[in-house]
Design a protein that fits this description.
Length: 511
């Protein structure tokens, strides 16, 4: 590969890449920008640095695009023949088991503590089969990264994607300084160890965008699998987290479950004779880009339509993926309680809940979306009048409409059960036209930076959330503007380029 000899080129790996494809009615492939927090964070980095971004083909259209492009190589915006993106054509069954069954139904549930434990999890033979696919998927990434780093491992990633085992061959150290690879998230927890074995000379970082479970919850994983995940991340030289709380939980798991030697003062874990530095790198919003985008005509038009529908009433806004951890049901229940305990708000406030679709291959997510829709209808039926609909729920994806809602919000509700960071809590204050009051869960990573000016809540406490909504609505204009400005400053302090540069610095200069 042409980029292999460029020593300081940065390799990024994440499940979801910067671009995805759909198949048009005319049979032609169309490109779309990839979605989600990881992608928005990394896209601005990738546009400014010499990066090769390895990602998975997520759909049949992606697979077709990956096969059409020589070596699976694309430009950042999806054109074949680029050199910024390598999309891996992992066999659909392997991908499905790794992504849906292990990453999203198991690791995600563990780290967000989402299990209904009398019934789930259930780690039987089927899970062992799924785990083999998770290994194969991680192996495909490790081999692609090793190949991109200039190793001669004798197998292409696409060819090895279904095999499961990483070939145990090390490459000679490359010229021009160590290659750096930054591997993202819970999908790719085994890849650092695999890559370190394939390419001992590489400098390797892993970054977790989720929370990390405390040992008592993490122990739910079968012992060997819990250890394999920890050992996988500890193949990296640096392991990054979004806040100290998640980093501490990881260190605790390394100590209690893996028996690794931990040094909390220096934030390091020593395992199998290798030192992994632990770092906290909070991720903020790209304020300049957000403000630029929010000034475009499509956002202006949606803002005008929303303002007209609001008719001068106050707006409580929430914007999420329809995701179990986002706690949308309790958020709606809190709004209902607000209208019961503070009837003075009836007719005076509208709740805009924009919950765009997510992970609909998983039955829990489809059922959750249906529950959200049922509860929203109940609230509209219970309180609505001819002149006033208390709630607007939208479950389709409309980015411009979300930006417009941020601009108009009087109150922004962000109440996750548990969240790695939560960028909504940061984007809202940056875009708010008049300064918004933020009602924020203490279980979101963003709480570490925003708690001084937000109204903090326990996400399980529906009555407490309703009361915080009341306080937020009652806030004086000057207080709201003051807090909003301070939230916006904190939210913009750590843009993605800085977040990424900090990780590279930690990798280059370990403590
Ligand atoms: O770690 C969180 C994350 O990976 C973010 O990118 C995003 O919020 C979400 O999960 C994306 O999930 P998915 O790629 O499954 O839609």
């Amino acid at each position: 590969m042409g980029h292999a000899s460029a020593g300081r080129r940065i390799l990024i790996a994440s499940n979801r890449g910067p671009v995805s494809f759909t198949l048009g009615d005319d049979g032609r492939l169309r490109t779309r920008r990839g979605g989600g927090g990881v992608v928005s964070g990394l896209s601005s980095v990738a546009a400014q640095a010499d990066v090769l971004w390895v990602c998975a083909a997520l759909s049949d259209a992606d697979r077709a695009a990956a096969r059409d492009a020589p070596g699976g190589l694309l430009s950042l915006d999806g054109a074949a023949g680029g050199s910024a993106v390598r999309m891996l054509d992992i066999p659909p069954t392997v991908f499905h088991r790794a992504y849906n069954s292990v990453a999203n139904s198991t690791l995600w549930f563990v780290h967000h503590m989402l299990y209904d434990t009398p019934n789930r999890p259930h780690f039987g033979l089927a899970f062992r089969r799924e785990w083999e696919s998770f290994r194969a998927y991680n192996s495909a990434f490790a081999e692609a990264l090793a190949a991109a780093a200039g190793a001669s491992i004798g197998a292409t990633a696409a060819g090895a994607a279904g095999t499961g085992a990483a070939p145990a061959r090390a490459a000679a150290p490359e010229r021009g300084g160590p290659v750096r690879a930054v591997i993202q998230d819970y999908h790719l927890t085994l890849a650092p160890r695999m890559l370190a074995e394939l390419r001992p000379g590489i400098r390797l970082a892993h970054f977790s965008h989720t929370p990390w479970a405390p040992p008592d919850y993490y122990r739910m994983l079968p012992d060997d699998i819990g250890r394999e995940v920890l050992d996988g991340i500890l193949g990296a030289d640096h392991a990054g987290f979004l806040c100290q709380r998640w980093a501490d939980a990881f260190i605790d798991c390394c100590e209690h479950i893996l028996g690794a030697e931990v040094d909390r003062a220096r934030q390091r874990v020593v395992h199998r004779g290798h030192v992994t530095g632990i770092g906290v790198h909070a991720l903020g919003a790209d304020a300049d880009e957000l403000i630029r985008r929010a000034a475009e005509p499509d956002v202006q038009a949606r803002a005008a339509a929303l303002a007209e529908a609001a008719g001068g009433r106050k707006l409580i806004v929430r914007i999420d993926r329809t995701e179990l951890s986002k706690n949308i049901i309790r958020g709606l229940a809190a709004y209902r309680e607000l209208l019961v305990t503070h009837p003075e708000w009836r007719g005076q406030v509208i709740h805009l809940a924009f919950a765009y679709p997510s992970r609909h291959d998983l039955p829990e997510y489809r059922e959750y979306t249906a529950c959200v829709q049922r509860l929203a209808l109940e609230i509209s039926d219970e309180f609505g009048t001819d002149e006033w609909d208390p709630l607007t729920l939208q479950v389709n994806d409309d980015y411009a409409r979300s930006l417009a809602a941020y601009r108009l919000a009087d109150v922004l509700l962000v109440n996750p059960i548990r969240d790695g960071m939560n960028l909504v809590a940061k984007e809202g204050p940056i875009l708010s036209d008049r300064g918004c009051a933020l009602v924020l869960s203490r279980e979101a990573g963003a709480a570490a930076e925003l708690s001084a000016d937000a109204l903090m809540i326990n996400p399980y406490d529906v009555t407490g959330t309703a009361e915080a909504l009341h306080q937020a609505l009652m806030m004086t204009d000057s207080e709201r503007r003051r807090r909003g400005a301070s939230l916006a400053r904190a939210a913009a302090a750590l843009p993605p380029t800085r977040w990424f540069a900090d990780q590279l610095a930690a990798l280059d200069h370990p403590a």
